[in-house]
Write a structure and sequence with these properties.
Blueprint lengths: L46 E5 L7 E5 L8 E6 L5 E4 L2 H7 L3 H4 L4 E3 L2 E8 L6 E2 L8 E4 L5 E6 L8 E4 L1 H4 L4 H9 L8 H11 L1
Parallel strand pairs: 7-10
Antiparallel strand pairs: 1-2, 2-10, 3-9, 4-6, 5-6, 8-9
Length: about 200
């Protein structure tokens, strides 16, 4: 996800959590930093997470083969454990995750904006700002389920992008938490990037 360039990461901007600090050991295994493998990925169209072409963009999602438009690349669901859901700040704190790192992967669901969700494994995909074309889209027609579909043909060796502000719903309590810590929630990243362009 395109996160690094737009984040305000100064330690002085990050207060401690309101209830408890980040735990020394996670009680829920974090979902990101894993390879693009497992039953949630389409076995007919291999992909991988590796360094993005975007400077300071972290990892991106790359096609290893040609992928046609209209292909479902992933399906994740809370009931299957491939989508992790937190309903409150207390739930997120109890997981013991690094909240500042989690900003890169926490996304809202349009059917339930009161909760924050994390794909398992997390999808390392960058944002299609005005200089890039989105090649995939998150579909959230079903509660606690997300699917990722191609919206254009993708060539082998091409990095894939999605539009954060269209695919990810806001989650008020989570977005406020991240903003207070000097981070930009992914659902709000496009607006911050547009402000950067406007200053040029």
């Amino acid at each position: 996800m395109l996160r690094v360039a737009a984040r305000r990461s100064a330690a002085s901007l990050r207060p401690t959590l309101s209830r408890t600090s980040v735990a020394s050991a996670s009680t829920v295994p974090k979902t990101w930093g894993k390879p693009a493998e497992g039953p949630t990925f389409n076995p007919d169209y291999q992909t991988e997470f590796r360094s993005s072409q975007i400077a300071e963009g972290g990892n991106g999602w790359w096609a290893l083969v040609d992928i046609p438009e209209g292909v479902r690349l992933r399906r994740v669901a809370v009931a299957e454990g491939s989508l992790v859901k937190f309903d409150s700040l207390g739930d997120l704190e109890s997981a013991g995750w690094d909240v500042d790192d989690a900003v890169n992967y926490g996304i809202g669901h349009w059917k339930n904006p009161a909760s924050i969700y994390f794909l398992n494994p997390g999808t390392a995909m960058n944002h299609a700002d005005r200089t890039r074309e989105a090649s995939v889209r998150y579909i959230q027609d079903e509660a606690d389920v997300m699917e990722i579909w191609t919206t254009k043909s993708v060539k082998a060796g091409e990095e894939m992008f999605n539009e954060y502000h269209k695919d990810f719903a806001p989650c008020p309590w989570y977005d406020t938490l991240q903003r207070e810590r000097g981070n930009v929630p992914v659902s709000q990243l496009n607006a911050d990037i547009e402000k950067m362009y406007a200053k040029k």
